[in-house]
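Colleagues,

Please find the record for the two-part complex below.
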Amino acid sequence: MIKQTVSDPSVAPIVKSVQVDLPVEAAFHLFTARVAEWWPLRTHSVGGDSAVACAFEPRVGGRFYEVQKDGTQCEWGVLQAWDPPRRLIFWFYPGHTPEYRTEVEVNFAPESGGTRVTLTHRGWDQTLPVMASRRTGYVRGWTFVLGKFVERSKVAQGDTP
Amino acid sequence: MTNISALEALADPTRRLIFEQLREKPRSVNELAHAVPVSQPAVSQHLRVLKSARLVRAVRRGQQRIYSIDPQGLVELRAYVESFWEGVLENFQSAASQLSNQESSDD
């Protein structure tokens, strides 16, 4: 029997942060209500060139979704926490169904007269069902990879003594 | 895109299926050929692609080569997700700086 070994750090949360010269309220508003103005849709969407907008429904249980040219909406996730102007948490499963979710938390904290925005993407170690082999249709690379990444992490978790 | 080869490798449904089989446990080409609806030569071809993308690796056991998930692939996919968020946050940051310049010029 061949043992698969994957180090723990590979399933640790991914944390990224930036500092912006806006008050916390304005930074939160730009990140959420005005997300379609800056989200890199062409490269970071399910539809790619056919994606025209994305939006949060501002409440717990609200959707984070993409709108395509023909009006089709594609759900990216669902809000789990909505605490303006300090924090939001959403399940993230662009191009998939919630069972393939990971979780993203975004925090807004005052720093040096502006705001520190910290994004934490976690849930790589969650137990998830095996992806059905028929699920092969319309999924762009990155959305697919997010799902696969989760599955790979399950391997990592299962093999960690 | 730091690891387009891993992305491309997994864009193929049969390769995904093979990859999923190896996620469950390491297997030989023969075992894989029984588990997926393609011929053994086709499985071998797919394995070569997965291997070049460092998503699977092989060890020899007697006459057989046993394939398993390559942890290196996980590292690369992780780098991909990191670069995904870097792209998002860079755009957010430049939108914020535009907004902040606007507001200071409005004063």
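Chain B has a mean pLDDT of 84.

Comments are welcome before we finalize the supplementary table.
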